[in-house]
Design brief:
CATH topology of the largest domain: Metallo-beta-lactamase, Chain A
GO biological process, one term: telomere maintenance
CATH superfamily of the largest domain: Ribonuclease Z/Hydroxyacylglutathione hydrolase-like
Strand content: 15-25%
Largest sheet: 7 strands, mixed
InterPro entries: DRMBL, RibonucZ/Hydroxyglut_hydro
Subcellular location: Nucleus
Helix content: 10-25%
Family: Belongs to the DNA repair metallo-beta-lactamase (DRMBL) family.
Keywords: DNA damage, DNA recombination, DNA repair, Endonuclease, Exonuclease, Hydrolase, Nuclease, Nucleus
Structural class: alpha/beta
Number of strands: 19
Number of domains: 2
Distance between the termini: 30 Å
Bound molecules: zinc ion
């Protein structure tokens, strides 16, 4: 759950993934993905505000489609940034000062449309990861985070990384890859469905959005659509990559992800299915805290016909280490810090950094800059200074 408050300290006038309070004074806004903890402040009124002040929200094309399902706004207020395509943006801040930045969005592997943002201005380069999960063996595939010299890709180094530290903890050292987790879900589902034609599988996903990768891959493997709730179906229908793998017809499939977690047992969309014909598959990470994640999945010891699968859309500790050590950075800002885990986050970030720089730089340490900087009352990011009105950006 993101605790980042939105302002990118190194470059004036930018807010990412927070749209309330001081962020309303920012000149340009960025949304990494459509999860509610990254959308504080987004509302119809917010979009009216940015339309009035001629500000723009930048995001991926899929994120824009998901926003359109939830909010009313003038399409020109939200600009799409294509993956791995450096985009130059000029905007104004106080005293008519013009700021020129280059933004590159990079696939974050977290949910449909999720991206990281690389902001570059003069000699400053800041990477904001948003929520991300990148397999350690895939780092060289992140084209936008490399220089190309003589057709060789060289990893960039950053002034600062705003890092998704959701699982920066020794409780979550390693996770199975998402492909491994989904294959486990597929095996359990296929076995169950082959035993009796009346059998069905419930996928119990912890949040309304976030399990789309499972739906797509499982649907392909079983050649069967996934039943989702009406409101979710309507959102997914806006995304070509998702729409053909889900259905709002409960009778057309044996795989159901339509249940709210708090609801009681049984399949509410199908009164004709008895409990004995249902298994529930629960993809989650929390059940694997401090456990051996090489097991990938196992039957629940307490709940009948319930199969737990280790599945994460955030990087594990090992993946975070690999990421930081591959790209290298002068500073790291942890974007997810629970108050009772501050010490561990400090310690682990220092350990990771130590491996990169050698022991001499460890003493610099990290400052958890919470809360975000106060915005001086003198600083006003006014619309009249905003100069970028190029819809092609
Ligand atoms: Zn997220
Ligand atoms: Zn259903």
């Amino acid at each position: 759950m993101s605790t980042f408050l939105g302002l990118i300290k190194e470059i004036p006038g930018i807010s990412v993934d927070r749209f309330d309070g001081a962020n309303l004074m920012s000149s340009i806004l960025f949304l990494s993905h459509c999860h509610f903890d990254h959308m504080h402040g987004l509302s119809d009124i917010f979009f009216e505000h940015i339309a009035e002040y001629k500000k723009y929200l930048y995001c991926s094309p899929i994120t824009k489609a998901l926003l359109e399902a939830r909010f009313k706004f003038k399409s020109s207020c939200v600009k799409e940034i294509d993956i791995n395509t450096p985009t130059v943006i000029e905007y104004g801040i106080e005293n008519n000062e013009k700021i020129l930045i280059c933004v590159t969005s990079v696939s974050a592997g977290h949910c449909p449309g999720s991206v990281m943002f690389l902001f570059e201005r003069n000699d400053i380069s800041v990477l904001y990861t948003g929520d991300f999960r990148i397999n350690s063996t895939d780092l060289s595939k992140l084209k936008g985070l490399h220089y190309s010299i003589d057709s060789k890709l060289i990893p960039r180094t950053f002034s600062k990384i705003y890092l998704d530290t959701t699982f920066l903890s020794t409780d979550f050292c390693a996770f199975p890859s998402r492909q491994e987790s989904i294959f486990k879900i597929y095996e359990v589902s296929r076995n169950w469905l082959s035993k009796d034609p009346r059998n069905v599988v419930i996928l119990e996903c912890s949040a309304t959005y976030g399990s789309e990768f499972i739906f797509v891959e499982l649907s392909k493997m079983l050649n069967m659509k996934i039943h989702v709730r009406n409101d979710v179906f309507e959102s997914y229908c806006r995304i070509a990559q998702l729409s053909c793998y889900v259905t709002n017809d409960p009778h057309s499939t044996l795989i159901h992800a339509c249940k709210k977690k708090i609801s009681s047992s049984g399949l509410h969309c199908r009164g004709d299915v008895s409990n004995e014909n249902i298994i529930t598959v629960v993809p989650s990470v929390m059940k694997w805290r401090k456990k051996d994640t090489s097991i990938i999945g196992e039957w629940d010891k307490d709940k009948k016909r319930t199969f737990n699968v280790c599945y994460s859309t955030h990087s594990s500790l090992d993946e975070l280490k690999a990421f930081v050590q591959y790209f290298k950075t002068l500073e790291i800002y942890p974007c997810v810090v629970k108050t009772d885990q501050e010490k561990e986050v400090y310690y682990l970030l220092n350990t990771i950094k130590n491996k990169v720089d050698g022991p001499s730089l460890v003493s610099q340490g990290y400052k958890l800059e919470l809360p975000a900087r106060k915005v001086s009352s003198k600083v006003k990011f006014k619309s009249k200074h905003f100069s970028s009105d190029d819809d092609s950006l």
